[in-house]
Amino acid sequence: MKDIGIFYGSTTGTTEEVAHKLGKLLGVSDEDIHNVADTAPSALGDYRLMVLGSSTWGSGELQDDWYDFLDGAGALNLKDHKMAIFGLGDESMTDTFCNAVGEIRKRMEPTEAVLVGEYPADVYDYEHSEATDGNTMYGLLLDEVNRPEITDKRLADWAAIIKKA
């Protein structure tokens, strides 16, 4: 089993860029960074730690390529695996900020993968997000629209956390 695989869905290229930045911080080779648009969900089982990333679109939806991928992933048994989630959003969408993180977590629950990498989002100003239960953020939230200047530090700090998972 390989150590870390990064899986992303990207429409405009921003989530892909973040996935590759994260890959460098985690020492993940390009061959272990996967676009879910052309990757079989079964590839998740190849990794001890799966890092999943999506932007949030419309009124809080996943990036389009994630829907079919997660439908397939939900049938997998990933009980001995760990999962970390990152999401990109626009905090001015105050009712749906980074909802994709929460949607991925929810849709991956049947796999029994263990969620790791909770990270605070108190630097952002929003009213609601499916990326939290009110106490814990399910992963790393980023806003490349309004606060790109804090992304690199947040990525580095989160990478240090999930390396230890």
Task: Describe what this molecule looks like in 3D.
The chain is an alpha/beta fold and 165 residues long. It has a single domain, classed as 3-Layer(aba) Sandwich (Rossmann fold). Helices cover 27% and strands 21% of the residues. The protein contains 4 helices and 7 strands; from the N terminus they run E-H-E-E-E-H-E-H-E-E-H. It has helices spanning 14-26, 66-73, 99-108, 151-163, and strands at residues 2-8, 33-35, 47-57, 61-62, 82-88, 114-115, 140-142. Strands 1, 2, 3, 4, 5, 6 and 7 form a 7-stranded mixed beta sheet that branches. Helix 3 (99-108) links the parallel strand 5 and strand 6. Helix 1 (14-26) crosses helix 4 (151-163). The chain is globular.
Structural class by helix and strand composition: alpha/beta
Evaluate the radius of gyration. 14 Å
Instruction: Compute the separation of the termini in Å.
Output: 16 Å
Bin the strand percentage: 15-25%
Q: What CATH first level would be assigned?
A: Alpha Beta
Query: From the 3D coordinates, which CATH architecture would you assign?
Result: 3-Layer(aba) Sandwich
Mean pLDDT: 95
Share in helix: 25-40%
Order of helices and strands: EHEEEHEHEEH
